[in-house]
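Q: Could you fold this chain for me?
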Amino acid sequence: MQKDKMFPRFALYGFLKNLRFFEPFLILFFLQVGLSFFQIGILYAIREIITNLLEIPSGFLADIYGRKNSMLFSFSAYIISFLIFSFTSRFGLFVAAMFWFACGEAFRSGTHKALILSHLRLTGRLNERLNYYGHTRAASQAGSALNSLLAAALVFYTGNYRYIFLAAIVPYLLDLINLAGYPAELDEISSIKGQKKQVMKEYFSSFLLIFKHSDNRRVFLNSSIFTGCFTASKDYLQPVIKAWALSLPLLTLYSATRRSAVIIGIVYFFIYMLTVSASAKAVRITAFFKSDKQALNITFMVGALLLLAAGFGSYLKLPLISILALLTLYLFHNYRRPLNVHLLSEVIPPKLMASGLSAETQMTTLITAAFALLLGFLADSFSIAIALAVSGVILAFLYLMAHLNLQK
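A: Sure. Below is the predicted structure, expressed as structure tokens.
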């Protein structure tokens, strides 16, 4: 892949963005301050619903007024969220923090991918989008791998999950500086010149055409359903690893929080190091399938089986099975994302790229919210094992509406 002056900037963005030190411990933090799984599900659902409500307007504003400005607002909102999480234990204020986090997600999702695609279009390299995006995503996963070790070190040193939110502000400030230096030409700002209403009418009419054909809808559904289920269920790996870590005769002189932090950090480090390869080698891995669509169909169904396996492993008190199943699910998700963006970019008109990708994220957030509430309810009412297994069954059922037509 031919690299250029913008590739390091795009890669740095993803690397810094994924230094979310709280991520490997988010559910454990909420449990530590006294929330139930269902309350955690409510917070996740609020995050996803607010993101959903803002997705289309944020994509529209990014396309009309500037994608770079959208990204700068996004990271400012993230920082406000991190500050609130750092200094409160009240559920009501957690809702406010999730609101600002959702603003960050809505104004970021789809927008940075649109900036990358604009760069490739302007430099005549749009045919490289799968490989190019796969390598930028690999840099993001490298950030996640380092994030796991740094987060574990912070928790082990402090014995508290709260400080990881404050620490996350530093890389996000650095990313603000990185984004501020992006060239203005990548914005491809639409000219409205006193015709705002007419432009908006034409804009949304064109946008609806994306979903006119069933094959286009299935591309969106295949991506959104799998990603939504993964996003809602992936953090349940944390209590599974913690229970396993505390059963091991290691670091027994330290508190449960410190002991589990070490194991969680190591496991997440290996997960993300493997996902670096899965993202960067998306093109090579796809060569084993007859087509991109077949790859997405097969990995969708295997993902459902992995959730079932994770549930059964937890039910049978065999945590290593659950950990390995969820680890593999991470790999599949990170392999699928470059393919998803590749196929989505084929069905979304260039002038609607930010909004189209935001629409995919909007669908994902609705599905994530539904799964988050369901998982929280089932985990509280029954067990984490039942929650994971049921989500796998539902994902398999949803394949009926999300499988891609291989004949076209």
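A (continued): The CA atoms of residues 30 and 40 lie 7 Å apart.
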